[in-house]
Amino acid sequence: MIESHEPRRTPLYEVHVAAAGRIVDFAGWELPVQYAGILDEARAVRRSCGLFDVSHMGRFMVEGPDALALLQHVTTNDVSALEAGRGQYSLLTNAEGGVMDDIIVYRWADCRFQLVVNAANASADLAWLIANSPDGACVSDISGRTAMIAVQGPNAVSQVAEIMGAEVARIPRFGISESRFNDNSITLCRTGYTGEDGFELICRAEDAPGLWSALHSGGAVNCGLGARDVLRIEAGLPLYGHELTTETSPVQAGLMWAVSLDKGAFVGREPIAVEKVAGPSRRLVGIVSPGRIIPRQDYSLYAGGSKVGSITSGVFSPTRECGLGMAYVGSGYSQAETLEMEVRGTRHPVTIVPKKRLLVP
Amino acid sequence: MNTPSELKYTKSHEWVRLEGEVAIVGITDHAQCELGDVVFVELPAIGRKLDQDDPFGLVESVKAVSDLYSPLSGEIVAVNASLNDQTDVVNSDPFGLGWMVQIRCANPSELDGLLDATAYEAFVAEEGSH
Question: How far is CA B78 from CA B22, B43, B45, in A?
């Protein structure tokens, strides 16, 4: 198979260029990192509504009488607990219990599922699913013929309802449903990566510019990858390649709520179960850094002069007006209130908080 | 891109305005645009002596950290303390309220070696084409 080294473009590329989005390369895709400015875009999502092109993410269908068995085998969460019209956050783990990706599994029907996965891992995830497929499961990649737009913020649901009908507000959190816009079929997922309410909308690639335009005209603010990163860090959400890698486990990452050890065998179950009982050697925590000292990936953390951890992600939070980040620290220190973070040779005090308390203390 | 004609410029994207013996220094409109939203500025202590091209501080945006280089030799006589709390002026008014340091020049003739507005614009255009 020949790997293309040309960066790929989503169905909304021309829309971004026309709107003066600043285009960068992300995971082999040309996408806007910002429009008006990263901080203003993040503020717009927290205050009203923002619009994100997330078409680069992988979207797969898994169907057939053995679809459930396949997904139970390769994911950590209990897919059998999913009702039709619902989704769940889950992990793909390897035989050592290391995280290969974090994903969302949606169930349309008994034997029909839809997966959304990270762009950087899409090829590997697809290959892994296919390699593990029994005869009665069919895995298909629908990424190329679809686009995905995230609409996020306190006004997001009402903005989408304005163009697709009031009934979309009845879709439950993590629900999946179908609606129409301009006589075209749209899939709505009430999920997101910002900590706000909203939808991730999946449409046919050719319908994406019209959908984006209608949402933008309704008042949603164009947002890029920079704002997306600020918002997910504020919300304490992990990013593959930073908080999650094959060298991290769900126990260390604090994601055991997305792992069902009781559902039966799955890839990596035994090492995860062992680590849960023994306790992990390190844990993922939230970091609050006062003023304008900003945590960055790989900054070291110290307790009394010894290195005890390092930052995985960090950003200046326009919502709290201080630095926020996440870090792995030795388990003995994860309950400690303050550590020191080294920035360009100087150590500054920072506070450990639970990841879900980064935004609202 | 805004490039006031009365200022001098460096290839590291600082600008200089000479007022008597004191040079006022900041980063250019091009620099603030490239950096994106500025969130932190680290400035030197008053009294610090610098040679031309010495690093004297840094500018941190949401996505990047960039060093500041002294356009001239001399002594820091003032710094813009308002940048400790509010950094958005660096983006919105880089040549005015976004000024960073004031240097008493040890050797004002160094100014002649800096770029004028036309030369700086040409430099930026050429940098951008690579």
Answer: 10, 10, 8
